[in-house]
Amino acid sequence: MRKLLILCLLLAGFRSWATADSTVYHFYDKDLKRDIYVKSPSNISFEEPPQKVLLLVLRAFNLEDDEQDKVYRLVKYSPNASESIWTSNKQGQKIQVIAVRKNEEDFTYESSDGSDTFDFTYSEPDQPRVITKNNYHYSRFFSPTDFAIYLGLNSYTGQQDIAPNNLSELQVWPSRYIALSFRANATLSNNKKTHWVLSYGPEFAWHNFMLLNNHVLKYEGGQVAFEQSDKATSKSKFVVPHVNLPVMLNIGFKRDHLRVGIGGYIGYRIGGYTKVEYKDGGGKEKNKGSLGLNDLKYGITAELGRSPGAALFIRYDLSEMFRSTQVVPNGMQAFSFGIRL
Fold this sequence. Notes:
Shape: elongated
CATH topology of the largest domain: Porin
Keywords: Signal
Protein name: Outer membrane protein beta-barrel domain-containing protein
Number of strands: 20
Structural class: mainly beta
Number of helices: 3
Strand content: over 45%
Signal peptide: 1-20
Radius of gyration: 32 Å
């Protein structure tokens, strides 16, 4: 009895609209797994879409783009067995979309004159509801959490002031930056055009500085210096790992699938080492230590990309790389740029 009452309420509009001047279009959307009924008290002339999917049908009924998106998402994410959604097209004609999930039992409604028959399926625990803009929740642009890999190049400023012959000069392509990022995206604002989030979370980053030619980094007697090696080198680098905490304001532009972010970060150094490999079987050297580097760092960062897809990033340390107690390397600040995957 309860099922019958619910069904009668759902189909009441169909009885009054089953006239020659009304429009009713029924199809089954395989992706949404729902029977869809699009109806209007007006006689709407439309071209049947090549594929029977809700978005194409709504477009054929000449709905605005944002209205198409609203109706589609309400149907897709509804927990109910049926939904009744009112909207209107660009001409101001009222349109009702009824979506019914195939569940337990089949019902058939036939109009009083026998001209129209509609097959429904219904589940007893759920009842149809009319959803308006007041309780519509816009879709997220950013997921609640995400994981990303940063791949890029790094260098530093101030090297020309350190010593003659630019002994701190780097090889560009081998000086790589790698980071593993885990972050949460807390929504600040969400509407049909944009999604604003505050993104934060830990990351593990490695600065790999590859020195040019036969230059080496030495740390002796509590002082660091860039020097010329007395033996030819095939590789000379120093690596600085950090645990960082970036905090960013990210904005997602839904229509253009574009995302922009800007923010800052703080980091703590969790090690450091130098590695030198000599030519002609000269062996290799690896030394771990603080290398006169600051334990804490901070800086600014920005990102630009598409969603889904990769983003470009840049990071610039506002803090100096080496401690103030170091005599030679003064004013060096690291920066990185590349792609976020």
